[in-house]
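Its record is set out here:
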Amino acid sequence: MPSFELGERVAQLRAARTPFVLAQVVIAEKPTSSKPGDQAVILADGSIEGFVGGDCAQATVRAQGLAALSNGRSFVLRIAPEPEADQAGKTVVVNSCLSGGTLEIFMEPILPPPLIRVAGVSPIASALVRIGATMGYDMQQWSEDNFASVDAVVIAAHGVDEYDALLAAVQSNIPYVGLIASPKRGKAVLDALDATPAQKARVKTPAGLNIGAKTPEEVALSIFAQIVELRTSEVMVTDLIVENTPELTAIDPICNMSVAAVQASIHADIDGTRWYFCCQGCKKKFVADLKIIVSV
């Protein structure tokens, strides 16, 4: 895939809020089929678009890419044909099937920015949208469509149609739900809310940390501080992990390399058992050896 096409694909994935890992070769010691600057994206189903090496290298990149999607951390992946000592700042993986060269690839998980929906047209609502945009958050007006990827909902309607929005938010288990109201009015709204005690307890009201905020901008700042605090706490750490990222691994029966057990990996189905391989060479040898064993 040419670099300009890959750039367009990256833009499409970002626009669609699709998580992926951007892999870029930074060191390629001969003999290797890739060169510095080669890039690829790894998706949550294990598929790879672009080029950072042949089958053997791709097997390692796929497995490490899925791990990066799970933990959200960038790192340098070093793929070597022989065992090496641990190296600071690098994940070293031995791939004995490589042609003899060594690769170093920068693996950067690109996760969608937090999606915040704001209900209301108040000055505080406007301040939330402005400040959130400068933080790189995906700020949207209130909508009940597709709650699956929503990280936070802030009700800033000051009593105008806030009940239905609040009820929908708590029933959808959105990680952060904030209601802008005085302590007295906030309690009254929650008392009238047709929700379970556990759902009501999740509502932050008055929304935001108590920093003595006065202006709409200061209130908005206090709310984002509370959202950041919650997102970085142990309570929400699992919410930062990409859902549906495969975690299964398998061992190549020929070279004993650990590979990702996903549909996109090289595999063979034999007598109801699926075998995974790092490259086509290992697959061919396995199938050939199996035929010899069966024929004996």
About this structure: Residues 55-71 form the longest helix (17 residues). Residues 234-245 have pLDDT under 50 and may be disordered. The two ends are 45 Å apart (CA to CA). Residues 33 and 277 are 19 Å apart (CA to CA).
